[in-house]
Amino acid sequence: MASVSSLSSILLLQCLIFICAATPTSPASTPENFIQCVSKNSELSVPVTTTLFTPNNSSFNSILDSTATNLRFLKPSLPKPEFIFTPLHDSQVQAAVICLRKLGLQLRLRSGGHDFEGVSYTSESQAPFVIIDLVNLRRIEVNIEDTSAWVQAGATNGELYYRISQKAEYILSQLEFARPWRRLVLGIRGGGGEALESFFGGRLNLFPSPEKVTVFRITKTLEQGAKKISKSGNKLR
């Protein structure tokens, strides 16, 4: 009987160990684990009350909807992020990407540019995801001497135009992203670079505005195929 009792105890203990090991991380503990991981892997400590917002936080919805430019992505039925993280330093962004991968969470990175497709703050799947909002990384430095400006990814077009107008009458021509292996040149349209890859900022070349500027606008209705043009643009993106 003693041996049977001991064997039963061993089997029960093994079952308990298996259950504990197989139990996934509790959703309630995910934000805490994330903050601990980011603090460990970044240069600055993370002030939780001002950088991390869960659905239970009163500011969650206002932050989530703050830069939404397409109302159809604000429907209550659409999946919402597990939490929103607003880093204060570049190193926290790098650490956040690493930590989300460790926690098995998908990433949505939102910059100061427009996002009519909602790819930076929504998800088409039911997989849990997190938004890293770069709203706090919006520093703009304009250097008139070498006709350039350094812009962090969280800055908006309006902020950028205003800062440039304070220095001189310059217009935007192209955006160069410094790469250790190449340079990527894009036309400025106000969209966020996160649609291409994760980055923290970019260098702008500024050129004097000519005396005469020629512009044109083509207007298309739905009957004239405007929907097809929009669909083609989304595929290219």
From TrEMBL:
<comment type="similarity">
    <text>Belongs to the oxygen-dependent FAD-linked oxidoreductase family.</text>
</comment>
<keyword id="KW-0732">Signal</keyword>
<keyword id="KW-0274">FAD</keyword>
<protein>
    <recommendedName>
        <fullName>FAD-binding PCMH-type domain-containing protein</fullName>
    </recommendedName>
</protein>
<dbReference type="GO" id="GO:0071949">
    <property type="term" value="F:FAD binding"/>
</dbReference>
<dbReference type="InterPro" id="IPR006094">
    <property type="entry name" value="Oxid_FAD_bind_N"/>
</dbReference>
<keyword id="KW-0285">Flavoprotein</keyword>
<keyword id="KW-0325">Glycoprotein</keyword>
<dbReference type="Pfam" id="PF01565">
    <property type="entry name" value="FAD_binding_4"/>
</dbReference>
<feature type="signal peptide">
    <location>
        <begin position="1"/>
        <end position="22"/>
    </location>
</feature>
<dbReference type="InterPro" id="IPR016166">
    <property type="entry name" value="FAD-bd_PCMH"/>
</dbReference>
<feature type="domain" description="FAD-binding PCMH-type">
    <location>
        <begin position="77"/>
        <end position="237"/>
    </location>
</feature>
<dbReference type="InterPro" id="IPR036318">
    <property type="entry name" value="FAD-bd_PCMH-like_sf"/>
</dbReference>
<dbReference type="InterPro" id="IPR016167">
    <property type="entry name" value="FAD-bd_PCMH_sub1"/>
</dbReference>
<keyword id="KW-1015">Disulfide bond</keyword>
<dbReference type="GO" id="GO:1901696">
    <property type="term" value="P:cannabinoid biosynthetic process"/>
</dbReference>
